[in-house]
Amino acid sequence: MRTVAAILLLIAVGASAQEAPHTDACQAQIPSDLAAAVAASFPSYRTPLETDNVPEDVQYSHTHGGNGCLGVAVADFNGDRRKDFLLGLTALKGESGLGVLALATKSGWRFQEIRTWTEDARIRQYVEAVKPGKYDRTEALDGPLDIGERDSLQCSHWGALVGRTESTGVVYCYVGGQLAYVWVSD
Asked: What is the SS3 assignment for 89-120?
């Protein structure tokens, strides 16, 4: 009987030793040269982690076909046929966040900061790539437009959606070489 128990114990230990460690879904998407460029350009922030978001938002992502990462989106945001990244960076100190478009160039990365409209990056901040198309300002907003804000926005390339889950959503896209935005939810 001891022999059977010892064999079962060895099988269990062997099986657990073969399991791969969990790779963070956000970090797995970010190329190492981009991570290094972000660290050099934004020393007060770090690249996103899956655990930056509340568990129910991560679970929602998993159950709806996502990978659990709400801080990284990949698309061609400026129409140059290169793979660009939208990152929701997290402050090393405090709780603030910073939205960054990392545009791929022949020589590396060009960064465009965007406002995330969230006070607390570690609670419910998200980024997402949205398809080219027309985006209209939410009817929930009735105040004057800010600089760069539009009532309606026609994105001819992929757009960058940033906000807080179950709360805000702002779409950014390049129009005539300039970044414009429209509030799509509030």
From this structure: EEECCCCCEEEEEEEEECCEEEEEEECCCCCC
Domain that holds residue 112: 22-185
Count structural domains, the chain.
1
pLDDT in tens, 86-127: 999 988 887 778 899 999 999 999 999 987 655 555 567 889
User: Rounded to an integer, what is the distance from CA 36 to the centroid of its chain?
Assistant: 17
pLDDT value of residue 6 = 45
> Considering only CA atoms, which of 133, 113, 128 is closest in space to residue 165?
128
Whole-number Å distance between alpha carbons of 101 and 78: 10
Distances 100 to 22, 78, 89, 111, 178 between C-alpha atoms, Å: 26, 14, 7, 6, 15
In a domain, 114, yes or no: yes
Q: pLDDT at residue 23 above 60?
A: yes
Asked if residue 115 is part of any domain, the answer here is yes
Residue 11 domain-assigned (yes or no): no
What's the pLDDT tens digit per position in 32-63?
A: 999 999 999 999 999 999 888 888 888 888 89
In a domain, residue 12? The reply is no
Residues 73 and 106 sit within 8 Å (Cβ to Cβ): no
Q: State the pTM of this model.
A: 0.82
